[in-house]
Fold this sequence. Notes:
Oligomer: single chain
Shape: elongated
Structural class: alpha+beta
Number of domains: 2
Order of helices and strands: EEHHEHEEHHEH
Number of strands: 6
Mean pLDDT: 76
Helix content: 25-40%
Amino acid sequence: MAEISAAQGAQGASAASGSATPPQNARKKEKAPNSVMNNGAGNANQAPKEPQRKEITVTAVPGTSLFGLAMKYDVSVDDIKKLNGLTSDNIREGQKIRIMAFDPKEKEAWDNYQDELSEQKYEAERKADIERKNKLAESRIAEAIEYGLDDKYSFSIQKETGNIIITLKEGRQLYDVKQDFNIPDGVLRAYNNDLNKYEIPKFDTERGMVENADNVKAKKGDTLVIDTDSFKPDKPFMQKLADVWNWLWN
């Protein structure tokens, strides 16, 4: 078993109470270059081996605490106490503390490798989702045009997100936009942080109330972002009514 000083083990931590497990990866490490991903040997694309814990012995110095050691070596206070047969969190200067710890270099290489894999997976999923949303947006726009919404709006697709951009051809109420695109108020506002184009009316002293902002008309040329996943074009009321009559009589 290797023996090292714990002078740096405390890291300013005072003696911990209880047996709480410190958070994992509490300190954000600098990202290592790809050459470190293989633990310093072989092909740069080769994955490093998963690190294994090895027992080391730490000599307690003034300021050393079980919590500080647990933070430094990525173990739990309970595991340290169990390995050393301790019944309390108190340790004395000069006391030998056994710890099952990772090799720091192996652990850093492994963590960086896992971070890289996570980033690659996220990026692949993000690109696939945008590609899916772009295709969906095209069909949503085609459906909206079929329902005649192109008389009121012009459409474009935000390629980098797959969301739909609508431009108003005439003044429309916010209520109309939500109805035409069958989209909830919360979703519309979530994708449009600046809805100042729909100015909230001032207090009406005669009626003693504030008019609902949904009733305020937007200006021609105003644009809004529509979340493609939440948007389903809605047939105009008269067309839906005609569909019902056709169903009843045919």
